[in-house]
Amino acid sequence: MTSKLRRAHKYIWLLLIIIVPLIMVFSIKNLEFLVSKNNTISSFNSLKKGSINRSENEIIKGTVFENYVEIILKSTLKNSSSVVYEMDEKGHKFNVIGQLTTAGIYNFNINNLPKGIIIYDAIKHVEITKISFKWD
Amino acid sequence: MGLDYQFVLWNKYKKTYDKMIAAGISLYIILFAVITLIFNSETTIETLIIRAFGSLAIIMLHIILAIGPLARLNKGLLPILYNRRHLGVSMFIAAFIHGGFSIFQFHALGDVNPIYSIFTSNMDYGSLTNFPFQVLGFLALLILFVMAATSHDFFLGNLSATIWKRLHMMVYFAYALIVAHVFLGSFQQETTTFTIGITLIGFILIASLHLITAFKEHTIDKVKTEEKDGWLEVCNISEIEEDRAKIFTIAKERVAIFKYEGKLSAIHNVCKHQGGPLGEGKIIDGCITCPWHGYQYLPSNGQSPPPFTEKVATYELKLTGEIVYINPKAFEEGTEVKPCNL
Lengths: 136, 342
Prior knowledge:
The complex is a heterodimer.
Chain A: H1 3-31, H2 33-45, E1 53-56, E2 60-64, E3 68-73, E4 83-87, E5 93-99, E6 104-109, E7 116-121, E8 126-132
Antiparallel strand pairs in A: 1-2, 2-3, 3-6, 4-5, 4-7, 7-8
Chain B: H1 12-39, H2 45-73, H3 78-82, H4 84-107, H5 114-120, H6 133-149, H7 153-159, H8 161-168, H9 171-189, H10 194-222, E1 227-228, E2 231-236, E3 245-250, E4 253-260, E5 263-268, E6 282-284, E7 287-289, E8 296-297, E9 314-315, E10 317-320, E11 323-326, E12 340-341
Antiparallel strand pairs in B: 1-2, 2-11, 3-4, 4-5, 5-9, 5-12, 6-7, 7-8, 10-11
Helix pairs in contact in B: 1-2, 2-4, 2-10, 4-5, 4-6, 6-9, 7-8, 9-10
């Protein structure tokens, strides 16, 4: 290699060594990767302040608040579509309240207190999972 | 080095390397499929192909990027460098299968053009964790395509070595795009840190290798020799092996001083083909032979033997006692210089 090429290679790698880790650090910070996990645990060790009902299964945890529902997706689903429905009294999907993508914590606004939550694959038309809330 | 362009310039060594590449690829794909089916039997064939060839392409790219600095650090690895181009084209094919199946699976079944869909299906360009990472993979694939398509010596000869080299140095940009593609994609698709960890380790390894080599070369560039009456002292004649060279640095440029048939000749160290280090080659059939791709030059004038037209700069040498001296002023490329007799 000529000295120009050697110099070009060196500066390219010095640049990459700065840029690539920066992307990695900001991505991790943006996702709050570690913080989310801690929140997932803490929020279910005790009933969160202001929450009025909760339920969980092996896939999701749901907590109902006055005007919103918090859903924690424990691990990313393999389904390409994961639509969140409110469940009606008969256990059927009733009203779309949102959509899940990757594992994490989701908050969706609600107008009524739901009987439960259904996660539905709208492409394959299959129910992925559901949880019910018991109301007195 | 061939007089006519051939689609693939095979010899028995290249065939052996290519067989090893094909065997390695086949083994990896089979192992990946078996392990995936054991631990995740619900995986569809499309997903299996996308993941198998995607991970294969990344592993191959890491190997390709490691070969250059490793060959600089250990000359025993030069034969691998000799076959790197075929590895590069194979890597592009693996990346193309990964990209092609991904585009088909995720973008071809809608009512918009699949390429348009790659750029518009996720418009969250302001977020890092939800960034449309497929766009990064697509751009990297375009760069790899240009590189694979112009990898033949026909393009090297017609584009000029400088433009060809600049074009192929875009592999570093493609690598950065691919690291970001995998890293950001993993955040959106997986819950474990396995892929992220492997990508990170790979990046640290490759970047370290390139930096170690760069600083080693920088140290060699900095070596200064005192000039006496227009001549620089190179070494004792006994330090140069027969039919081999001593590489010497003059104003950050390398010069190769060859000893052969009781004579000494000096030429510029950089091969005109792809910038290979001529001084790390040896004299075969009276010609200095580049260790990278076998391009040849006559020691006395730096010209490739007819009908080839490549030529490099030559230098004047003198011998005082057992000490070799060089005149740092280079002659025009291809200038005949009388060899220094021992």
